[in-house]
Amino acid sequence: MARSVTEWVNVTPDISIIARESGQVWFHRASSTKRELDPFAIAMTGNGSAGSTVGLLDGALNLGFSGIEKRLAQPEPTVAGYIVALAGAYHTSVHTPRNLRRAASRFEELGRPEVAAYLEERAREETGHDRLALKDLHALGVPGERLVANFIPEGIKPLCERFDELCAQDYPIGCIGYSYCLERIAALKQKCDIDKVQVLCPDGVDATRFLRSHSCLGSEVTHVEETIKFVASLNASDRIRVVQETYESALIMAEGYNHELLKSEAEMLDELQQAIGQTLPYRPGTYSSLRKEGGARPAA
Ligand SMILES: [Fe+2]
Ligand SMILES: [Fe+2]
Fold first, then answer.
1. Could you count the other beta carbons within 10 Å of the beta carbon of residue 293?
2. How far away, in angstroms, is 109 Cα from ligand 1 center?
3. Tens of pLDDT along 164-215?
4. Handedness of CA 257, 259, 260, 266 (dihedral sign)
5. Does the first or last residue of the chain, that is N or C, have fewer Cβ atoms within 10 Å of its Cβ?
6. Rounded to 5 degrees, what are φ and ψ at 39?
7. pTM of the predicted protein model
């Protein structure tokens, strides 16, 4: 009988994630005194399996978010917050196909056509997602192109920079960890999350195209499944690098979340209006009352 696969990755100087094919995952804290007796102090070299690889990837995400879990801002959704999120969605999507193709051609040069083909396919699938965010902004009466040209949410900037850097590296395997982090988090969004946003939108306006496609209702679920399968097929050192980058990206993403969400609706609205040089058809906390009066219907 084949032995069940166990995988492990050291993600911080003293924490390793250990995952079994059966789905069991645990965090292992290295003890300096017993380092020579610690079997997880040495990098893994064996094959992966879908069950253990997803354990490592999701373990890395959980660990990345665990530092801020208690102080994770959870404000009520607002129109201004949603517009900021759409601007962020645009920026995290607009360069994705170009960046992934850059990484793919590097893997072609390195004689790794299977990694190149996977990244090319991802680049194709992600093409046009920035347009979805722009369409949603237009539906809300926001000049999308002008907004994104002048505004990138501060919490999103480091994430975009990280992806640019990863895809430009000599050995750009880490870009798969970054993509996993973003897609897995998106795939956690449920229909009720979309409904909450829909309630904020003017009647008859469809401004949730990006959100739907980047939720459990859209293509993200398949993207996540395909990525897990692909990462599990990689050699051990590539899997280690992908899991470590999933952790690093989760840390950056978690910090960015709080950065934006802790701002008040008025602050966000002010930032947005300055970026587009005009007043938006919303005032903090007033959209629902305006809707009852039949006003504030933005041009769709
Ligand atoms: Fe996307
Ligand atoms: Fe995707």
1. 8
2. 26
3. 999 999 999 999 999 999 999 999 999 999 999 999 888 889 999 999 999 9
4. positive
5. N
6. -65, -20
7. 0.91
